[in-house]
Write a structure and sequence with these properties.
This protein has 470 residues and is an alpha/beta fold. Helices cover 41% and strands 13% of the residues.
Length: 470
């Protein structure tokens, strides 16, 4: 089965609740999982637009053997994707018979909705819900380039750079067309309008750009391993967070990355090679089987634990039919049990100073409940670090200190759904250098001197927010 047939099968499986999009993609045995995942995601993104065009053009009536999911994938590719460049076979020949009609119906839909860009169809109600308004985030890979050079490249391509956003989400909402911004919190994160397609962009293909949601960038930023550190990435695939840590470490030190899924690990190896990561050692191994007493890990002071979860906060789930991503109680219980064991195991490494626990789940059972139990089992050895006090979405108030946890959602942070907790060893006052570097000047600590007050007042009057120093 080729790309389009496989994409149609995955799309049907997602809509029939046979599994998650990512799980169905990886179990499809299709060789280029990134290409398949991108095609299905983008077809889903434009689902209602495609349905309207296909119905108006009478495609399924004219081609009675063409199934609806395959039709949707093919029409996306013809009108909004790569246009069957270098492939398509018999599907290209079939769609070419209807190309003029399909393009005319897409143009008519734009006129009817009063828009000129394909992306504007998404913003004008072709989908519902806050998840449809989340921008496209792209992290500049500082192992290969710098934000300034990436910005210049996009400007030369005709994109319109709007400068660095303020701390308000309102700067991000009106982005459209070829406009883009620099994120106010992460100095290497570019922000594009919803629906911007970058999978074929030269910077992405060369590893200079990592397509990664903003919330997914927070774990590595908050772990903040300095160059020369020894770090464990406990459940590492697909590797975006691993490459982010390597960039923060400037490829100096060692990242021990573990994952049990051989296919995901192979895809991760390709991603890391393209990103220029040289400080990472991959192992197809269960993290729970890694011995904390092993001398190889005696210098590990930082651990990132992003374990398997329900994925209920993933944008691809939230863009599906309502309730499609809701996990059963039995599955939640099984996942939480594994997450609890993995977290307690990670906290047992003797030299550990700082750990970030994160999930792309919205469920309390996988988030606050797991963190609370781990803190109790640590018997006071670890505490939650009070990071990013200005972040608007905090942990649920289920135990004292839960407000130190971070949550993210399309509604409150214009990101995917996410949860993060930062553990630090209680006797190590690591919140001094590490947390302070993540908190903008003036939010905590001793009162600044008068000159700093004047600078801060001027920045406030200008409506800008100085990003944290990494």
């Amino acid at each position: 089965m080729g790309l389009y047939g496989t994409a149609a099968a995955v799309l049907a499986g997602v809509e029939n609740r046979q599994g998650s999009l990512k799980g169905l993609v990886y179990s499809s045995n299709f060789q280029n999982v990134k290409q398949l995942y991108a095609l299905v995601c983008e077809t889903q993104r434009y689902s209602s637009v495609l349905d309207a065009v296909i119905a108006s053009a009478g495609l399924l009536r004219a081609e009675k053997k063409l199934r609806p999911h395959l039709a949707k994938v093919l029409v996306y590719e013809l009108l909004l994707g790569k246009g069957f460049r270098g492939g398509g076979g018999r599907w290209k020949a079939m769609l070419s018979r209807h190309q003029a009609r399909l393009k005319a119906e897409l143009a008519r839909l734009k006129v009817h909705r009063g828009v000129s860009q394909n992306e504007d169809l998404l913003q004008e109600g072709s989908r519902s819900g806050p998840a449809s308004q989340v921008p496209r985030y792209a992290r500049v890979n500082t192992l290969k380039t710098c934000p300034e050079d990436a910005i210049d490249y996009f400007k030369r391509q005709g994109f319109s750079y709007q400068g660095q956003a303020s701390s308000s989400l309102e700067d991000l909402r009106p982005l459209k067309g070829q406009q883009f911004l620099l994120d106010p919190l992460l100095p290497e994160l570019l922000v594009f309008p919803t629906g911007t397609h970058l999978h074929e962009h030269p910077l992405y293909r060369a590893g200079h750009l990592i397509l990664q949601d903003k919330a997914s960038c927070l774990p590595a930023m908050l772990l903040a391993p300095p160059p020369g550190s020894h770090v464990i990435d406990a459940c590492a695939a697909p590797g975006n967070k691993t490459s982010h840590m390597a960039a923060l470490m400037k490829n100096q030190g060692k990242i021990f990355a573990f994952d049990l899924d051989a296919k995901r690990l192979a895809a991760m190896a390709t991603l890391l090679a393209r990103a220029g990561v040289s400080c990472c050692e991959l192992a197809e191994k269960d993290f729970l089987a890694v011995l904390p007493s092993d001398q190889r890990y005696s210098q590990v002071q930082y651990i990132l634990l992003d374990p398997s979860c329900s994925g209920s906060g993933m944008l691809s789930r939230q863009l599906e039919e309502h309730g499609a991503g809701t996990p059963s109680k039995a599955r939640l219980s099984a996942l939480a049990g594994f997450q609890q064991r993995a977290l307690c195991h990670a906290l047992s490494f003797p030299s550990l100073k700082r750990l970030v626990y994160s999930t792309c789940s919205l469920c309390q059972e996988e988030n606050e409940d797991v963190v609370c139990e781990a803190l109790q089992q640590s018997s006071g050895a670890f505490r939650l670090a009070p990071v990013l006090p200005f972040w608007p979405h905090r942990g649920l108030h289920t135990f004292p200190g839960a407000e130190h946890c971070l949550r993210a959602s399309p509604e409150t942070t214009l990101t995917g759904g996410f949860f993060i907790a930062v553990f630090e060893r209680a006797e190590v006052q690591s919140s001094a250098p590490q947390t302070e570097t993540l908190v903008p000047e003036g939010t905590s600590g001793p009162a600044p001197r008068r000159k700093k007050r004047r600078r801060k007042a001027a920045a406030a009057a200008d409506g800008t927010c100085t990003p944290p120093h990494m």
